[in-house]
Amino acid sequence: MQAETHGLPPLALYVHIPWCIKKCPYCDFNSHTRIKPLPERQYIDALLSDLQYELPLIKDRNIVSLFIGGGTPSLFNPSTIEYLLNYLNTHLLLAPDMEITLEANPGSLEHARFTEFRAAGVNRLSVGVQSFEPDLLTSLGRVHDRDEAIRALETAQTAGFNSINIDLMYGLPKQTLQQAENDLATAIDMEIPHISHYQLTIEPHTAFYNRPPALPADDNIWEMQTLCQKMLAEHDYTHYEVSAYSKTGHRCAHNLNYWEFGDYLGIGAGAHQKLTSISPWQITRRWKQRLPEHYMQATMEQTHIEGEHAVDAGSGVFEFMLNALRLIEGFPKKLFEQRLGLPLDTIETPLNKAIEQNLIACTPTHIRPTQQGRLFLNDLLMLFMN
């Protein structure tokens, strides 16, 4: 295995599979209601063509993590995922025993396949439960119920998945404090090692945005957040990112690479990527066509790149801080220069303002958001906008 190319950030791989059983009213991801039959082989061929197009940009760089997201990738057959993983293993430098995550939903058809996904090489599942409460699942447009969610998690554990994430939301339509507590208690009792616990936000271009539901009052949402954070701390979950909590040894390596402003290759419909080059230093973002049918056709003609732009210094600083300040422990000062190729004094003025406002704390080696900075993260980030 070759060492990471000198001076470049770690490189992760994201693979997007865009189909779901149905589109949830809160979802603003590039997901589409599935067609039958799913064009699995055609889509995989498009992914591999997309990858071949990108390979010259990454040359001999190691891949440190793989995330297969969506959509609902677990709708694909395990044999299709195995074919994809085998191809990646042949054509890329994959780090030994690296984290390979597959997103899944608790539909009974999908979780019956978990053993096969594990045998195919997937070693981490991220399960989109969102809630265990029947009325809340209905209001969110989810296709599973409480029992299916619990069975899916139990099946994943039985299949040998030691690393599992569960997505849970709070601040849901008409949700009570007791319901938020019960949701989290269920996940904790099941000994799920990683919990993504985040507030429902109403995003543009979603059904909820066009027809807003009745959400709990802000004071009630704050009470849910503080109670749940207390519960997680009491059960030895480390709060390491704004919405991420983990047991020891179960932090998400792939997401940490995003938050530490690492590089990532993105293949699939609507996938985004960030790649750094040196001599001269440059960060480039690129994204692919969003509609699956257009993407599959366009990869055959090598016209699947929807857009690309070089990140200027000001935008790079903001993007770095947007990611790194989500980490509860903050970041080493040297990481700023390593990721951006800029000296730390580039941000001396906004950094000093943030310190004066008690939004950031500095040590000789680290920069981290204070508790107040985490509470007013948007205000903190605005200081670093160019």
What does this structure look like?
Helix 1 packs across helix 11, helix 2 (78-91) runs parallel beside helix 4 (114-120) and helix 7 (177-189) runs parallel beside helix 9 (218-234). The strands form 4 sheets. This protein has a 9-stranded mixed β-sheet, sandwiched between helices. Strands 12-13-14 form a 3-stranded antiparallel β-sheet. A 3-stranded antiparallel β-sheet has the order 15-17-16. Helices cover 40% and strands 25% of the residues. The chain has helices at residues 40-58, 78-91, 108-111, 114-120, 134-139, 146-158, 177-189, 207-210, 218-234, 253-259, 292-301, 313-324, 333-340, 348-356, 371-375, 377-382; strands spanning 11-17, 19-20, 32-33, 62-70, 93-104, 124-130, 163-170, 194-199, 238-241, 244-246, 263-268, 272-277, 282-288, 305-311, 331-332, 360-362, 366-369. It has 386 residues and is α/β, with parallel strands linked by helices.
Topology:
Elements: E1 11-17, E2 19-20, E3 32-33, H1 40-58, E4 62-70, H2 78-91, E5 93-104, H3 108-111, H4 114-120, E6 124-130, H5 134-139, H6 146-158, E7 163-170, H7 177-189, E8 194-199, H8 207-210, H9 218-234, E9 238-241, E10 244-246, H10 253-259, E11 263-268, E12 272-277, E13 282-288, H11 292-301, E14 305-311, H12 313-324, E15 331-332, H13 333-340, H14 348-356, E16 360-362, E17 366-369, H15 371-375, H16 377-382
Helix pairs in contact: 1-11, 2-4, 7-9
